[in-house]
Every structure is written in structure tokens, then in C-alpha cells.
Write a structure and sequence with these properties.
- The chain has five helices and no strands.
- It is mostly helical and 103 residues long.
- The protein has one domain.
- Helix 1 crosses helix 4, helix 3 packs across helix 5 and helix 4 (66-78) packs antiparallel against helix 5 (84-102).
Length: 103
């Protein structure tokens, strides 16, 4: 059974659309449920770039998924709970955490 280019494009764009919808839905939910306490907690964990890297590595080690950590971080940035600068450290830490858990 051969798969046509049309099927690949349809499934690829459909999957991307569902993924982006999920990110939007998650960030709206985070905005509605997150209070000042959660924002304060996130700011403490990502106050410096080194803290962000350590936080990203720890979260990745806990959930065993750098992709999950990255998606969560993007959702937090989209919700306005993290800045892009804070997110860069967390994502770098997620990649380091993946390397540590793989060995």
C-alpha cells in the first residue's frame, strides 16, 4: 500500500494544527488557573540562566521527556508566566537532562 504525497501533507499539517491548538488551549488554561504564587515559584526557579538550566534538567529528569518539558515551557511563555530569557535556560536544561537520563 503506497502513501501519496497528498496523504503525507494532509496528515502532517493536520498533526501540526492539533499540536498548535493544544498549545493554545494549554496556555489559556494556565493563564486562568495560575496565580501569583505560581508565577513567583517560576521566577525563583529561573531567576538566573544557571538556575533555569538546573530547573530544566530536574524537570526533564522527573518526567523523563525533554519534549514534554519544552512544550510546557513554551506554554508558560505563551501564557505570560515566563519570559523568553527564562525559557531559554529551561530548554537548554531540558536538553542536558535528556543527556543525563540517557546514560
Amino acid at each position: 500500500m503506497a502513501i501519496s504525497i497528498q496523504d503525507v501533507l494532509f496528515l502532517g499539517f493536520g498533526g501540526l494544527g492539533i499540536f498548535l491548538f493544544g498549545i493554545k488551549f494549554m496556555s489559556e488554561g494556565l493563564q486562568n488557573t495560575a496565580g501569583a504564587r505560581m508565577k513567583e515559584f517560576l521566577e525563583k526557579g529561573t531567576k538566573t540562566p544557571l538556575r533555569g538550566v538546573i530547573t530544566g534538567a530536574l524537570v526533564t529528569a522527573l518526567i523523563q521527556s525533554s519534549s514534554g518539558t519544552t512544550v510546557l515551557t513554551v506554554g508558560l511563555v505563551n501564557a505570560g508566566l515566563l519570559t523568553l530569557r527564562q525559557a531559554i535556560g529551561v530548554i537548554m536544561g531540558a536538553n542536558i537532562g535528556t543527556t543525563m537520563t540517557a546514560t
